[in-house]
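Support request, priority: normal
Reporter: lab tech (M.K.)
Component: structure prediction queue

Hi team, I submitted a job for SDR family NAD(P)-dependent oxidoreductase from Actinomadura nitritigenes yesterday, and the status page still shows it as pending. I've pasted the exact input below so you can check whether something in the sequence is tripping the parser. The sequence length should be 223 residues. Please let me know if I need to resubmit or if it's stuck on your end.
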Amino acid sequence: MDVTVSLVTGGNRGIGLEVCRQLAARGHEVLLGARSPDAAARAAKEAGATPVRLDVTSAADVERVAAEVGRLDVLVNNAAITYDTWQRPSTADLDVVRDAAETNLYGPWRLTQALLPALRRSAHGRIVNVSSEAASLAAMGSGTPAYTASKVALNALTRMFAAELRADGILVNAVCPGWVATDMGGPGGRPVADGAASVVWAATLPDGGPTGGFFRDGRPLPW
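Reply from support: The job had stalled in the queue. We restarted it manually and it finished. Here are the results:
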């Protein structure tokens, strides 16, 4: 039986690292992407993965990785920046907003486009966009405008890719790991392993599973 090959961006710490661990424990061949080669190597050794130097904002990095990846079954777009708790939309620094969008929206978009040929060759293609309940329009407040706007757009991208790729059998979903005790989330959140399990659930959905959804712990969230 063929081994499932999974690529996780932002895999050197936090939720990304734990997703790599959990997928490797399930027998996946995990490609752990990180901007720093040293950070990727250290984390990959810890997770039982293969390190990949990958800055999702770099077109050259994305093109190189797409050329190097022979086959791919699962793409987890986890890399994200700028949980801007200090900002409000009325006074937000739009340069900060643009920087957040480069990593949180255009990065996953660019990488997904580049890796689609490999994912289309897979019999069980899966794309997981790691989002946040902060992006839910139903419960949205005024905080973290750069992060929130970029994740709203990522949710929209999820829906569009899901609609386009449904005929190819590629399942595309957005997942909120919840408030997790990571460098970005800060202390007080739930264990990293629990948040990562939400992502792994979507990455390992059976054929015929949901697509174009927004989930936490396997349960739908309001858009």
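The chain is about 40% helix and 15% strand. Helices lie at 14-25, 37-47, 59-68, 94-121, 145-165, 192-203. Let us know if anything else looks off. Ticket resolved.
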